[in-house]
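protien #1 (seq + structre)
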Amino acid sequence: MRKLLLAAWMLIQVLDLNAQQVITTSNLNLRSRPGETGTVLLQIPKGTTLELDDCRSGWCHVSVNGQEGYVTKKFTRNLSVLEPDHIANRQAHPTEPVRYYQNSDGRTVQSPTHYDAVPTGATAQCRDGSYSFSQHRRGTCSHHGGVKRWLN
């Protein structure tokens, strides 16, 4: 019986290593393959919760909004080491589906989105109440009534 319990405990430990919940500590690029040479598929905003698996050489496989790719682990923090209050207040929640667009630099950026609070990584609030993640001022909130206020 003792050996069976030990084997079950070891199996749980192995499963926990395969997938870990983390929070991003800065805006993070989702890449097509591990390493800096992988094409940037989209940018994940700071404060986003991710479930990482298959981490090798500091790069981890992840699925974000149905798109699979790789992120570097160095800009994430394990949720298990955070205080419960910090986890509860880590991020505003979108009140509509999150979409993305490709900016003038060819980078994938989150489209303006309505949130229940100011989201981490937002650069402006549009006049229609949505939050923009634009990386350039020109054209920011152009389809959302213009910029109400800049956040950075």
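ok now protien #2
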Amino acid sequence: MKYWLVKSEPYKYSWDDMIKDNTTYWDGVRNYQARNNLKSMKKGDLVLFYHSNVGKEIVGITSVIKEFYQDPTTEDPKWVVVDLKVKSSLKNKVSLEDIKKDQKLSEISLVKQSRLSVMEIKKTHFDIIIRKSNEKKP
């Protein structure tokens, strides 16, 4: 199993939208590295859902339920989607600020490649983020 993070601007598609839909195809990716990451996703992989630009925080977990196929929003065969399904909301949101403060997360792609919309993350980073989400906030 691999672990991933996808980013969405909440005014375009928010975690609340994801919860309402329960499943969705992850479309609109027009960056080759992000596209290749979509192609590497396998059924059952876990995916963190990150609100970009507004909020800048990880808010939930989804899982891959269908591996890559042609993006239905374009006829260009270069672009693909995967289907994601809601697993759970995080107990507490984990902000980009909190991630940047944690030395153990200094190598996470979210910090290193901040413009990338679909990225693989290490299991250790995934586990740290889940642990942070479960911590009581002041």
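The chain has five helices and six strands.
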